[in-house]
Design a protein that fits this description.
alpha/beta; Aspartate Aminotransferase, domain 1; 3 domains; seven-stranded mixed sheet
Length: about 475
């Protein structure tokens, strides 16, 4: 009978640092100085976490039937069927994710890593299994390259503090783009102020794409970090991440990819992209709120100091000093969002059951259809590229402010988002106070887009000259 042995991470006392776990499917042995615990092969925390893909008679994906997996979609808002086009802000959760969360809290709720009792062991297995699932999902070489965070924002701040605090010096340059979300701008502004570094920006063209012809002259040896969004949350622009990383590597710059709008919508592989860091949030891909992940190349993470202090991230503590664990636990002080990580793994299982290439194709089809329908509306300006884009369409109606328009839409059951979308510099670039944004996911339909166009046509009449 073959047994698989692995070191148990961070047991509570130094005596246990050499303790071990032997995994199998049938038994558990406990001793005061070691634990032999057996587990079946890594699996989702609850059987329902695996998605049952709905298919038609010809074996293609039944996108309409997938909506049945999302209970929240089956409701009326102000007397109208809900149409949810605010997916760039957050996505809805399939039943399998809700089941995984409920299963954890009902059956396995305990703190991870620190206990030798049964519930703690199960919680730890599920939590670390979720880390492995995230690593597989984005093509990381090892689960140790995945740090759990609260989301994209915290992931970027972690890099700004830990990497930036150690490596950035006065006179160094941080290269960003003019289309960055505030979460990929403000942390670098703060870092530049602390370090005496300078910010440099890749301009945005009128068509919503970046001025790629200027990239080579902007990427000089003074650039130590190039941080950029994979998909713009306001324009839908898809940036050539692998090309950006290759060019940055040629001048010795570290790269960070903001994958908040791409990780749940298209294939994302950190090895193919060639990035040093990549950040994303669970709630934008069918997972819970308050959980996200930072991918960091192992040798870079190993070189970084902690950015938060507390329990869990230490090896030993005296009154004068402390020593710290290896990544990723070095960066996860305190009790983590255990349920969130488990829910994120369940969301990944669900998405993989459909296939990210299929999701991207469906999302792209919705975006193209929406652009065609928007062209029928007078007094409407759509921002962003006319070609391939993410499932995001930002637009301006001559007759109405975005806030008024989104309120009008809400009264008819249509959830849009109006404002600057945490893109104030980008809005100023286009001379706008904000836009109205429709953003789609795989549970949306062309029929819903048709209904949106009808509502916008009504809004044009309502807000237009009388």
């Amino acid at each position: 009978m073959a047994l698989q042995a692995s070191v148990t991470p961070c047991l509570p006392f130094p005596i246990f640092r050499s303790s071990f776990v032997i995994r199998h499917s049938s038994f558990v042995i406990r001793h005061s100085s070691f634990v032999i615990r057996t587990f079946p092969p890594r699996h989702s925390p609850h059987p329902a976490a695996h998605s049952r893909v709905h298919r038609t008679a010809d074996n293609s994906i039944d996108w309409q039937a997938l909506r049945e997996d999302f209970p929240i979609l089956d409701q009326q808002v102000h007397g109208h069927p809900l149409i949810y086009f605010d997916n760039a802000a957050t996505t809805h959760k399939p039943k399998s994710v809700l089941d995984a969360l409920r299963h954890y809290y009902e059956r396995d709720n305990a703190n991870v890593h620190r206990g030798l009792h049964e519930l703690s062991s199960r919680a730890t297995e599920a939590y670390e299994g979720a880390r492995s699932r995230v690593a597989e999902y984005i093509g990381a070489a090892d689960a140790g390259e995945i740090v759990f965070t609260r989301g994209t924002t915290e992931s970027i701040n972690l890099v700004a503090h830990a990497w930036g605090g150690k490596f950035l010096r006065s006179g160094d340059v941080i290269l960003l783009t003019e289309m960055e979300h505030h979460s990929n701008l403000v942390p670098w502004q703060l870092l530049a102020q602390r370090a005496g570094a300078r910010l440099r920006f890749v301009p945005v063209l009128d068509d919503g794409t970046l001025a790629l012809d200027q990239l080579d002259e902007l990427l000089t040896p003074e650039v130590k970090l190039f941080a950029f969004t994979h998909v713009s949350n306001s324009l839908g622009t898809i940036n050539p991440a692998a090309d950006f990383c290759r060019k940055a590597r040629n001048v010795g710059a570290v790269t960070l990819v903001d994958a908040a709008q791409s990780a749940g919508h298209m294939p994302v592989d950190v090895q193919e992209i060639g990035c040093d860091f990549l950040a994303f949030s669970g709630h934008k891909m069918g997972g819970p709120t308050g959980i996200g992940a930072l991918y960091g190349r192992a040798e870079i993470l190993e070189s970084l100091p902690p950015w938060h202090g507390g329990g869990e991230m230490i090896v030993s503590v005296s009154l004068e000093k402390s020593s710290y664990k290896k990544p990723p636990h070095r960066f996860e002080a305190g009790t983590p969002n255990i349920a969130g990580a488990i829910g994120l793994a369940a969301a990944i299982d669900y998405l993989e059951g459909i296939g990210r290439a299929a999701i991207f194709e469906h999302d792209s089809r919705l975006a193209r259809y929406a652009l065609d329908r928007f062209a029928e509306l007078p007094g409407m300006r759509v921002l962003g590229p006319a070609g391939e884009r993410g499932a995001i369409v930002g637009f301006v109606m001559d007759a109405a402010h975005p806030h008024d328009l989104t309120t009008f839409a809400d009264q008819r059951g249509l959830a849009l988002r109006g404002g600057h979308h945490c893109n104030q510099p980008l809005m100023r670039r286009f001379g706008l106070p904000g836009t109205t944004r429709a953003s789609f996911y795989f549970y949306n339909t062309t029929a819903e887009i048709d209904r949106m166009i009808d509502i916008l046509r009504d809004a044009t009449r309502f807000f237009g000259p009388k």
